[in-house]
Write a structure and sequence with these properties.
The protein has 196 residues and is α+β, with helices and mostly antiparallel strands. It is 54% helix and 10% strand. It is globular, with a radius of gyration of 16 Å. It starts with a strand and ends with a helix.
Amino acid sequence: MTKSLDFFFDFASPYGFLAARKVSALAENIGRDINWRPFLIGAVYKAHGAAPLSHPLKGEYMFTDAFRRAKLDGIKGLSKPANFPAHSVPPSRLTYWIECQAPEKVAEFVVAAYEAYWTGDRDTSDIEAALDVAEALGFDRQQALVGAQDPEIKDRLRAVTDEALERGVFGSPFILIDDQPYWGGDRFADIEKLHG
């Protein structure tokens, strides 16, 4: 049986974007497969009676820090999207559809969808923008649109969001590995030492 790690993320999270670019290397370094698990962080906050970035200073700091981290990672053009925080239903559903069609392309889609939103000035909360990303990776646009509307795919996103709640996921990115929780992309070195 192949060991894996569960990578929970929301496409509206800048830290999720930074982590998504590195998580494949992390998984390879420790001999794990990745379970890519986009979820709806807004639903998690709502379930706990909280709101993301409810403290104004935290919101300001988050972008200062995310831009600094992006610069250190060599990412150019990271900026606060005009519609932040956008809902992430379209790219999340497409991730699960792609997982069914071509699982080997999930990582590529996730990173490309993140880039479209965070560095490409594309509103991926609009299904057309999310479909542009899938089409650029070789997926048939109409099939992807139908797939994203499939009741099983919709149920999958709801189920993973419920799973995130049940397993104590409270932020993005969030990794669960051997039932140990790690919040944030700055914990990758810890994961390598403890699970490598």
